[in-house]
Amino acid sequence: MNGWLCIAGLGPGDEQLITPEVSAALADATDVVGYIPYVRRIAPREGLTLHASDNRVELDRARAALQMAAAGRKVVVVSSGDPGVFAMAAAVMEALEGEPEWQRLNIRVLPGITAMLAAAAKAGAPLGHDFCAINLSDNLKPAALIEARVRAAAGVDFAMAFYNPRSASRPETFGRILGVLREVCEPGRLMIFARAVSTPEEHIQTVTLAEATTDMADMRTVVIVGNSATRRVGPFVYTPRSAV
Amino acid sequence: MNGWLCIAGLGPGDEQLITPEVSAALADATDVVGYIPYVRRIAPREGLTLHASDNRVELDRARAALQMAAAGRKVVVVSSGDPGVFAMAAAVMEALEGEPEWQRLNIRVLPGITAMLAAAAKAGAPLGHDFCAINLSDNLKPAALIEARVRAAAGVDFAMAFYNPRSASRPETFGRILGVLREVCEPGRLMIFARAVSTPEEHIQTVTLAEATTDMADMRTVVIVGNSATRRVGPFVYTPRSAV
User: What average pLDDT does range A10-14 have in this prediction?
Assistant: First the structure.
């Protein structure tokens, strides 16, 4: 059985941010599996089958990929950013739990540049001190838990990065999170709304918490909230290495 | 003035994890500046001057790099991992604060694969749910703040990644952090000690909190602490996407 499965991160969009390790896996693959816009980033070639699927079917997608690897195919499951951060690596692990046979397959997770770090790099160094990464989607956890995490993180002055801040199906979540931040943080707290980082549609906007509005975020946006010491320097935003 | 400055992430060690963007900047550079072991990773070539300096002089190093860029040199400041995560990007921003003239220079931060995400990929998907990144070095912040952050993060069930868990100059810090974890988390909580990830010295060890000892960590180790749902599946460790 020569099949294998890689769960690979394509980075935020720019090809120059795809690691050589991921490019090599894609060059060897017989099958690429993933959410439609990510599979679209893979150049078609002879001998490579592209399997694009809709969002919200992560577990089915993971099982289909494992089945192909078990049948001897060389399969790359693609995620945008890093596959281990709110992406396909955990879904594949979940699928493995149900099928002990699959656990003996040749499976590797290949890291990528995750959205918050690409966004932070464009902005300067807003995550240069202790920080949290929080998925604001409440598909898989209660909204109250998300709010409790934001409150706790702000309470001990973590910087924060929010993934999936807002979607059509839950337009009110991000407004509630802004409300929590306004209870705990000062109005001048800096926030960065980074949309479609490293793509032609890139838009990066730094505002204060007082100025932030829900429509600054959508599903292609990662939101960074500075800590109490985060400040502007020239065209950049950064969080000092020392605590206040 | 054609000088420029890039603050670039070399990833955790393996050349296959260096982005093409960073490789291109290194190929164009006239000067590379950084901590000795990171500069050692850059192949010497004609026209490139390597400036290696000791640790704990980050601000001097940043100023020297900015001075060279201001003088028209093409300078890459190298960090291991990602330059925005407990690395040189924040130090360069800090140096910029003192010299408004430097703020007009052509400066870019080039992201890299940070240690916790490389370690997570090797282990499976332990950071597949909300998580924090905490620098355990108390050079730049009070030990009490570090402990408060660990306690708060564990209290709302974040997974955690610890950078710089232990050094010769503060052997007791990590023991105190283990103590905090033992107060808040169950003894079976999974922890991953990932040393020198993606290098020939790579060593990755998964243990329970009850089994963890301070000597499992050193300055080349990143420590990942799972959340309450983190579990083993086959050879992997992962944190489910859903909250319990």
Answer: 98
Read off the pLDDT band of B1 (50, 70, 90): low
The band of A72, judged by pLDDT with boundaries at 50, 70 and 90, is very high
- Name the strand (E) or helix (H) holding A131: strand A131-135
- The C-alpha atoms of residue B61 and residue B56 are separated, in whole angstroms, by 9
DSSP strand pairing (B4-9 vs B236-238): unpaired
3-state SS assignment for residue A42: coil
Residue A57 contacts B where some CB pair is shorter than 8 Å:
no
Report pLDDT digits (tens) over B192-227. 999 999 999 999 999 999 999 999 999 899 999 999
Q: Which residues are within 8 A (CB) of A45 and not within 5 positions of it... i.e. 6 or more apart? A: none
Tell me the domains of chain B and their CATH numbers. Answer: 4-113 (3.40.1010.10), 116-238 (3.30.950.10)
Residues of B in contact with A100 (CB under 8 A): 234
Among B5, B141, B238, the strongest candidate for a mutation testing the A interface, having the largest count of A CBs within 10 A, is B238
**pTM for the whole thing?**
0.97
Cβ burial of B45 (10 Å; 0-12, 13-18, 19+) is exposed
Number of residues written out for chain B: 244
**Confidence at residue A134, expressed as pLDDT on a 0 to 100 scale:** 98
d(CA B225, CA B176): 15
Nearest-Cα distance to chain B for A49, in Å, is 25
Contacting residues of A for B233, CB less than 8 Å apart: 93, 96-97, 103
Report residue B30 CA to chain centroid gap. Answer: 25
